[in-house]
Amino acid sequence: MDLSLLVVWAVLAVFCLRVVLAVYPAVLPSLGRMRFRPSSDRWVLVTGATGGVGSALCRRAAKRGCRVIATSTTLSK
Length: 77
Fold this sequence. Notes:
Strand order of the largest sheet: 1-2
Structural class: alpha+beta
Order of helices and strands: HEHE
Distance between the termini: 43 Å
Low-confidence stretches: none
Shape: elongated
Protein name: NAD-dependent epimerase/dehydratase domain-containing protein
Mean pLDDT: 79
Keywords: Membrane, Transmembrane, Transmembrane helix
Domain NAD-dependent epimerase/dehydratase: 44-72
Number of strands: 2
Number of helices: 2
Radius of gyration: 20 Å
InterPro entries: Epimerase_deHydtase, NAD(P)-bd_dom_sf
Transmembrane segments: 6-27
């Protein structure tokens, strides 16, 4: 690997780490206060809803009374 490319990757990694460390403490307290309240007038759009996290999110939102729009690229599911 070329030395200049290695330097660019190292600078990029340090920059990303600094951004995460700067933003994370500011965002973390607000995430703890967020609650998912049931509401029939609330709409939830889920992409990738045929499996994994998307499927679980669809089921959870529907159980809590939200209207769910589920999208996927897999036609068979």
